[in-house]
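Example A, followed by Example B.
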Amino acid sequence: MRQATTTGRLAQVETNSKPVLIYSTFPDEVTARTIARDLVAGGLVACVNVLGAMTSIYNWTGELHEDAEVAALLKTTTARADEVIAFVKSRHPYDNPALLVLPVAGGSAEFLAWIAAETGAAKQS
């Protein structure tokens, strides 16, 4: 695997090793932490930041809802993103959980390499 440049640019990182963030929400911290631990233990993500409580306001099945939720940022690679989404969906209590894959434009070369190493992207490229 080619390493990210010292400036943090991703141009030289193999496509499957490129880091992504996956944003998701959960009904409570216990659910978020349980799924997060399983993702990290399974090598699907390098890290999950379980953020504090928030309020989500949304329409669902024609009704306006205002619910307490917990957001999480999952750090993984493009190679693992589909697996992470499938894993979260299979364990998430919502019928249609929020799962958004967000590209990473750059960052610390060492941190980006760590994400790739923790998710096995270096072996997959």
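Example B, a separate protein, is given below in the same form.
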Amino acid sequence: MKTISPIKFILATFAFTWTLFSIVIFSGQSNQDFPAMLLYILGGCAPSLVAIFFVWRTFNKEQRDDFWSRVINPRRIKPVWWVVSLVAIPAVMGLAVWLNARLFNVLPGMEILNNLKVQPAEILIFIIMM
């Protein structure tokens, strides 16, 4: 197994992300339009996609199988990390709302929450993207 330097990974991730974002920016489309939104989502997933590419290029078959087993098999994740991963984002978001209300005496508009109330079918997608 060859090792990839962290600098190479960071540069590849940066280049991939901003290539996708630049296409959208220079196209002049709204980020709410379909092709632009897809490129924004792929750009946001760039660290994972670049890591998978490096695993594919540098690991042998046995190491790739072990990697995918670690990624997909939920039994290999300790229960404490399940709790951390499921509680951390809502806790940080709640803290941000609380701080905003405490410091500025105003609650944020929460447009995403209002959109989810109107279109409840998107709740599962929202949870997966979190």
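On Example B: The CA atoms of residues 39 and 101 lie 34 Å apart.
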